[in-house]
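Researcher: Re-running this chain for the archive, since the previous output was lost when a drive failed. Same request as before.
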Amino acid sequence: MERRVFCQAALLMLLQLAAGCSFEDGFLPDKPPAEQAKLPEPKNRSEGSKESDVPKEGNGLSQVAVVSTEDRTKGVEQCLEICGLDVYGKKVLIKPNFNTADPAPGSTHNDTLRALARWLQRYGAYQLTIIERSGPPLTKDVLQEKGIFELAEAQDMDIINIDDLPENDFVHFNREGFHWQEGFLIPRIITQGEALVQTCCLKTHAFGGIFTMALKLAVGLVPRRGYRYMSELHGSPHIRKMIAEINAAFTPELTVMDGVEAFVDGGPAVGTRKKANIFLASRDRVALDATGVAMLKKLGSNRAIMDLPVFAQEQIARAAELGLGAASPGEIELVPAEDENSRLCAAQLEEILHLS
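Model: Regenerated structure tokens:
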């Protein structure tokens, strides 16, 4: 790693001198100077499909990778290979689920985060930065307890603690018809960064969210100091719609869901556990959460999950209404890994999506 960093720095200096640029100019080469592996071609796509066909606003089919495994490294790698994510030469933000430091699925498993970072670096990510806000515990305490500072150093990653950002590093977002009284703030870098990759867990939520997966990750981008955003959110009868509305402020490149273990009741920190042995991933947060809810139904969950059709869940329905992703089961294509268990699981989830 030290030799790679030295070579990058040396080449960067030569390029800057040749171009008449200083380090203060913020000059960066178009591509990372270190030799990188070739990006794999997307797998298992429908005939005629290509990466740009994946919808951002609910038009056409939204593909969800399905990998049946209890090996977190394998799950992450196969999901990313199916999705064909291109991060070459990009600065990538990683948003995990570090609400608390509780063991997965209470929070993102360190092995999942590590596997995600290694894959992104292998395929050319120029710089990786973890961005997060925890709560109720302080973010720095959660990161410390989980060993994230050490993990980040070992993987050559930076960390942005949203608790520490000054006021001018946030942007205000609001839209007519939102259920937020005065809109909300999110970090400016989320709206201006080159790429955002998220990783979430598969679990229910006992405090109004019903479930906490890809869409609810966005709550960890809203600051808790200053205006009482979290009090407003958790005290509102529209909490699930408000969760969806935060997602209208930004678009991630991809979200990976770790479902090796799931909470089928309780959550988000602790709950009733079941082994699910699945990884899911998609560019479409709505399709991903819909597939995650279908997985909870497959496992057997609480009445708030079992008694409602997937697309009747308020988080999903509101996000679809806002044009953030798939609006019905017919707009989702499940793409399994090339093994029998993954194909069987995808078939079962597809049936649940269409029947529920």
